[in-house]
Amino acid sequence: MKMVTAIIKPFKLDDVREALSVISVSGITATEVKGFGRQKGHTELYRGAEYTVDFLPKVKLEIAIVADQVDAVIKAISSAAKSDGGKIGDGKIFVTSLEQVIRIRTGETGSVAL
Question: What pTM, to 2 d.p., does this model score?
Answer without folding.
Answer: 0.85
